Amino acid sequence: MTRFRSLYGASPLHLLAVIASFAIAGYGFLRIFDSPAPESTMLFFIAAVFMHDMLAFPLYSGLNQIATRSAGPKANYWLSEQMVQPLNYIRIPAVLSAFCLLLFFPLIFRLSADRFMANSGESADVFLTRWLGIVAVLFTVSALLYAIRLRRASQKAAAEDADRAADDD
User: Fold this and answer.
1) Is 164 within 8 Å of 158 (Cβ atoms)?
2) Is 99 buried (19+), middle (13-18) or exposed (0-12) by CB count in 10 A?
3) pLDDT tens-digit profile of 107-165?
C-alpha cells in the first residue's frame, strides 16, 4: 500500500473513483453522439463553460469577496482552538439555492409553463413553491448544523477552561 501511494500519490480508492468518473463521462460523451442533434448538445456545453468562466465565476467570486469583507474578522468565532465560521453556513445554502434557481428558473418564473404542460402533461404551478421549500429546508438545516457546531465548540472550550482551572489549583 505504501509503495502504491508513493507511486500514484493517493489511495487506491482515489484511483478507483477517477476511473469510475472517466467511465461515466465517457458513457455520457458517447450518448451525446447517439442523440438526434449532437451538435446542439455540444454547443450547449461549450456555451455553458463560456458562461460560467466569463460571467458566473467573476460574479460569485465578487459576491464572496463582498460577503467576506463585510463580515469582517470578528465574524469568525474561536472556541476551543476551533474556528466556527458563520459565513459558510450562509454561503453553502445560498449557492445551492442559486444553482437550483438557475436550473429551473424558466419553470419557477413560469416562462416555459406552456411547453412544460405540452411535453409532460403536468402543471408548472408547483415549481415556485417547491423551490421556496427547498430554500427553506437548506437554510434551516444549515442553521441547525451551525447551532450544533457552535454548541459543541463552546462545550469543548468550557471543558478545557475547567481542566486549566483544575491544573492551576
Assistant:
1) no
2) exposed
3) 899 888 888 888 888 888 899 999 999 999 999 999 999 999 888 888 877 777 777 77
